[in-house]
Task: inverse folding
């Protein structure tokens, strides 16, 4: 190429070439996604005593200022690419100063059995929300031994969320959407600890009886999967949600009909098994106009669908329940993020973790800092893994020894779950 | 009439929104493809941008600015995606290809390969600026409006993008490629 030629003319001609028509399939996906994405006039946190109503224009204005500042910094730094996906551990100043980003062009390494030293053995997997306020692009990542967040399924397109380990740590179930297989509905998939190509678990799921499935949870023996099944003809016309249990050997599905919610203003979410496999806890979410969540409570039901009862107090917002490995307590979050989907940085100081006895007594706030949520039990069965405003944290079940494991340099990584180990 | 459609979509009219994006989607996709250089990623970026736009449409105060607002959303999504991809994808090297000559006499196959390599070396922000200018034909003033930056800044960035593109092409010309050829 001769540089005497006008580079602008070359660029004009070169950029003119290329595809100019988007595929119908891609636009179909947009249609499906806007069906499930309601418009919201303002940010609201109905669970909080300090109600925050922010005009969207103000949010955009503040965002523009921040963006301008960031762009300015970027310019000053010669357009250095952002250090995406690099959680940095706090305790090590050396690492904090020079986070070990994956070299450009390097293939994403496969997860190894060894895990981040502060957490002991067992791979930690979590969600990375690329548009945190909207949950538009959620991907599964794992915490590498050097405390970096790396994609678990880099070759798989689409949204990935709600990771759940099998009891033996050999399998990981999650919900996926728009995997490029022409099916624009959310289904449950299963992979292994190395993130090999996932297999579809949600077989024989056809509308209107089965529209979508998500929020998987393995039974204690690993033979069954509890999850949420949504019914309806299309994604814009969902008619009910119910906790269902799938036998992973036979594929047989049993819906716990007592949990079914048939109003668009109510839905079930996030089932979790008791360690004896006899009971499940799950969230019941209520929504107001425009689909904005107004409340969430935790219920208990036996695995055959009987004995339904509310676990948490009626005036409490609660969700993301997780039964303790010894069966004595249920760990919960006062603001389940999958329900309220708020961006961090707003007033989430009143978001706390609690434990409650399985008879509904003894509600106890575990954390003290606030802005804590999305918790699960670590593989040792006694400590709690969760996310706070600084990153991935861990503490004892009584709230003691609360410490930061990995600082996330970029928003937002939530719902950590650790691989059980023998 | 687009103003009416924007108003209706802002009030939750899904069909009005679909009508709005239907006539814009091809052009937006083409812009995304020029920036990201990949059809699948361009479609992903377009999908994200259109869903964000639906979600945040009520925050758009002036319906007449819908197009600029939507393009800015798309550009930001493309930049974010390209930045992210930069960390987990291989640096592609397009090898010279023997084949029929280009349909016009301005660009040879070798030119196109070299432009592709040079363009991929640019930061996503500069790719976006070049796509807005050379594909959509926007001047610095229009680029400034779309990106929400001062016109002087847009001119400066366009200038730097051209310089960066030239530098990338020159650097590419110095690097031998597989087989001992020089691009």
Result:
């Amino acid at each position: 190429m001769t540089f005497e030629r006008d580079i602008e003319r070359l660029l004009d001609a070169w950029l003119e070439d290329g595809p100019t028509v988007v595929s119908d399939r891609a636009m179909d996906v947009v249609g499906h996604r806007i069906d499930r994405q309601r418009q919201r006039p303002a940010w609201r946190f109905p669970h909080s005593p300090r109600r925050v109503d922010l005009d969207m224009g103000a949010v955009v204005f503040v965002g523009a200022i921040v963006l301008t500042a960031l762009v300015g910094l970027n310019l000053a730094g010669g357009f250095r690419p952002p250090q995406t996906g690099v959680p940095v551990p706090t305790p090590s100043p050396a690492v904090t100063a020079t986070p070990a980003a994956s070299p450009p062009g390097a293939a994403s390494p496969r997860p190894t059995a060894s895990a981040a030293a502060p957490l002991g053995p067992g791979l930690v997997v979590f969600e990375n929300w690329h548009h945190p306020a909207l949950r538009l692009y959620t991907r599964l990542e794992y915490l590498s031994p050097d405390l970096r967040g790396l994609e678990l399924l880099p070759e798989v397109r689409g949204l990935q969320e709600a990771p759940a380990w099998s009891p033996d740590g050999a399998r990981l179930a999650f919900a996926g959407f728009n995997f490029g297989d022409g099916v624009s509905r959310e289904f449950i998939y299963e992979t292994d600890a190395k993130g090999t190509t996932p297999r579809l678990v949600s077989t024989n799921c056809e509308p209107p009886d089965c529209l979508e499935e998500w929020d998987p949870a393995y039974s204690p023996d690993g033979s069954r999967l509890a999850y949420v099944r949504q019914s309806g003809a299309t994604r814009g016309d969902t008619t009910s949600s119910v906790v269902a249990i799938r036998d992973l050997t036979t594929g047989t599905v049993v819906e716990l009909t007592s949990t079914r919610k048939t109003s668009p203003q109510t839905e079930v979410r996030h089932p979790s098994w008791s360690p004896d496999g006899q009971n499940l806890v799950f969230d019941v979410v209520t929504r107001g106009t425009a689909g904005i969540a107004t409340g969430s409570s935790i219920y208990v039901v036996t695995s055959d669908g009987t004995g339904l009862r509310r676990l948490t107090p009626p005036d409490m917002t609660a969700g993301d329940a997780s039964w303790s490995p010894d069966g004595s307590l249920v760990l919960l979050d006062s603001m389940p993020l999958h329900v309220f989907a708020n961006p961090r940085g707003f007033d989430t100081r009143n978001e706390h973790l609690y434990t409650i006895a399985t008879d509904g007594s003894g509600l106890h706030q575990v954390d003290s800092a606030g802005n804590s949520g999305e918790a699960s039990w670590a593989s040792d069965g006694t400590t709690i893994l969760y996310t706070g405003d600084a990153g991935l944290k861990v503490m004892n079940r009584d709230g003691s020894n609360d410490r930061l494991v990995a600082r996330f340099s970029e928003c937002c990584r939530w719902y950590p779950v650790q691989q059980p180990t023998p | 009439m687009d103003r009416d459609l924007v108003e209706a979509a802002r009030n939750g009219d899904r069909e009005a929104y679909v009508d709005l994006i239907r006539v814009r989607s091809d052009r937006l996709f083409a812009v995304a493809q020029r920036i990201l250089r990949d059809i699948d990623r361009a479609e992903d970026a377009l999908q994200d941008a259109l869903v964000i736009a639906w979600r945040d449409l009520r925050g758009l105060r002036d319906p007449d600015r819908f197009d600029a607002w939507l393009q800015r959303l798309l550009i930001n999504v493309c930049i974010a995606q390209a930045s992210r991809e930069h960390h987990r994808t291989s640096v592609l090297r397009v090898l010279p290809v023997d084949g029929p000559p280009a349909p016009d006499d301005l660009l040879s196959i070798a030119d196109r390969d070299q432009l592709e390599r040079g363009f991929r070396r640019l930061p996503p922000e500069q790719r976006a600026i070049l796509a807005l200018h050379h594909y959509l034909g926007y001047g610095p003033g229009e680029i400034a409006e779309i990106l929400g930056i001062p016109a002087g800044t847009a001119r400066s960035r366009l200038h730097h993008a051209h310089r960066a593109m030239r530098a990338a092409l020159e650097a590419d010309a110095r690097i031998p490629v597989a087989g001992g050829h020089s691009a």
